Amino acid sequence: MARKANTGSADAANQGRLKQIALTYKMTRKADPKVGLVVAGVGIVVLGVLLAIGFLIGHPVYLGILGFVLALLAAAIVFGRRAERAAFGQMEGQPGAAAAVLQNVGRGWTTTPAVAMNRSQDVVHRAVGRAGIVLVAEGNPNRVKTLLAAEKKRMSRVVVDVPVHDLIVGDGEGQVQLKKLRTTMLKLPRVLTGPQVTAANDRLRAMGDLMSNMPLPKGPMPKGMKMPRGGKMR
User: CB of 67 within 8 A of CB of 52?
Assistant: First the structure.
């Protein structure tokens, strides 16, 4: 019975992965119609090269098996990168897109979306990790600078010994493209210990933020969303 249960769980998990891959492919194909041809082409080229080498050295079976495995791996890598690019392309320009990226930066980071916002939907998100505090702003570059300065001043009351980095998402000079946001954050030098990160999070959490006063959906915010009257503004 236990074996049957384990087999059933494994089958269900595999079916779930296949459905996820199929869904990802459909979403990617909408933004990248050639993704199927590119992925298949990469796999065929890798397999063909290994097979050719196998015939040349007299081991077509061994090189064929190796080529098949490497072809699947190469196809998966290419598909993953194109799917990621398509996802970023769909999120680009949507309010709150940076928050969705921050939620998936990786382990060791604590993200708080929309710690500051104005009526024009310019917004600042906060992430805390071994690199310190990272404030990520999206919106009009001139307006978000004011939001960033106000948030830094507010945080300085409770965190004086933690480095603060600020990033503005965009394609302009001195800004960080959405697709490079995660990489940029991971490249920041790690200067804090685990306990220091925990202490900084606790102090910031005690300070409160916009999210504790106004419920917002996770991920990209709906276009046309308005700040409610009486809402806390920064």
Answer: no
